[in-house]
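Hi Q.,

Before the meeting this afternoon, I wanted you to have the nicotinamide-adenine-dinucleotide prediction in hand. No need to reply - just skim if you have a minute. The sequence and ligand are here:
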Amino acid sequence: MAKLAIIGAGAVGTAAAHWAAVKAVAEEIVLIDIVPDLAKGKALDLAQGAPVEGFSARIWGTEDFSALSGSEVVILTAGRPRKPGMSREDLLKSNLEIVRSCAEAVREFAPECVLIVVTNPIDAMVYAAFRVTGFPRERVLGMAGVLDSARYRYFIAEALGVSPRDVQALVMGIHGDHMLPLVRLANVVGIPVTELLPAEKIAEIVERTRKGGGEIVSYLKTGSAFLTPGLSAVEMAQAVLRDEKRVLTCSVWLQGEFGFSEVFIGVPVVLGKGGMERILEFELTEEERRALKKSVEAVRLQMALTGL
Ligand SMILES: NC(=O)c1ccc[n+]([C@@H]2O[C@H](COP(=O)([O-])OP(=O)(O)OC[C@H]3O[C@@H](n4cnc5c(N)ncnc54)[C@H](O)[C@@H]3O)[C@@H](O)[C@H]2O)c1
Ligand SMILES: O=C(O)C[C@H](O)C(=O)O
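Predicted structure with the ligand bound:
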């Protein structure tokens, strides 16, 4: 019986639990939060939707981390979101301690799981979780590329008035201002977007994608995006739980791929039962390589701040 655990019953964790239930990715879904009764209340509220929507997963909540036991996949969302005027890096210090303690619990209670980290600043937090758990790189993945790529695809679809399903596009690199929404590879059923949209419109979409999280923070004011972030984490979890071999952009520990080593960065990977099965490496243009290098340098600065 597949079990999914979600740490953090806040906005993203609850959205992830909701999508996981509706998409039936696991038979058991447990929400864990340190705030007494919060996860219990969120899980009960969600579970009561089962007769209406028709899902059948067992959904429950607790503040006891031993509930992680037996989980094939753990999604880590615990930690503060940013507010207007803040960068994701501003969260590093406070979220580092949270991620550290949660990763210790994951190591103790779910030593065989695939861990998907969502907490920001994501590339540094997934690095911290990698160090603390000591898991192999295949089982420690950061979620950002699925979300950033979804935003990029959505904005292209909106500009062209076509279904977002028919737009394919890839965002690599850091989850921050130096991310790389790749223009060369963006297409609508295989037709390059460069043949469908003027260069200025594409440049505008690339910039909006880079600032996509900040745009939502500026509207929400008290926190950050949660619906598509929760869905994106579940997309990754589903690929693992169902051994789908999906190609999704995840922040993973590079060991020479794309010319970089010992850094977490968003690249396209094949996801299956054991987590990351392989990195889909391809030739970058000189300009793309330079941009990826900037991303790598920015992540290295964040990683250094963790002291790990
Ligand atoms: N990677 C991404 O693309 C992405 C997207 C959206 C949000 N995020 C990040 O996800 C995190 C969560 O965002 P949110 O909107 O759900 O925040 P939130 O404040 O709504 O929820 C966070 C939850 O974590 C819980 N928590 C804190 N410390 C904990 C601990 N030690 N153990 C268990 N639970 C603990 C809190 O009680 C709270 O319920 C933030 O850091 C945010 O920046 C990342
Ligand atoms: O922008 C944020 O702080 C949250 C998240 O990283 C996002 O991109 O929505």
